[in-house]
Amino acid sequence: MPLAEFELVMLDSGEVALQRAGTEGALVTINFSPEVMAYLDGRHIEVAKSMMDAGIQMAFELGEERVLPGDAVQGKAHTVH
Question: 8: which DSSP letter?
Fold first, then answer.
């Protein structure tokens, strides 16, 4: 996935969304329950940002773990029956 700038936006529905900068389509949304909103006392944006940061980091780490076809078994032959 090419690197892109992302932004967090508050949707009219109250959800916090992650989208590519300059676009309208949400890639990921977070919806906090009323109980959690009350508990966070207005700090839900900071929590959503931390959640999104962790998710993006994990996605990049998983992408780095991928092995391109042919790279995993260089020089080894496998028989598929």
Answer: E
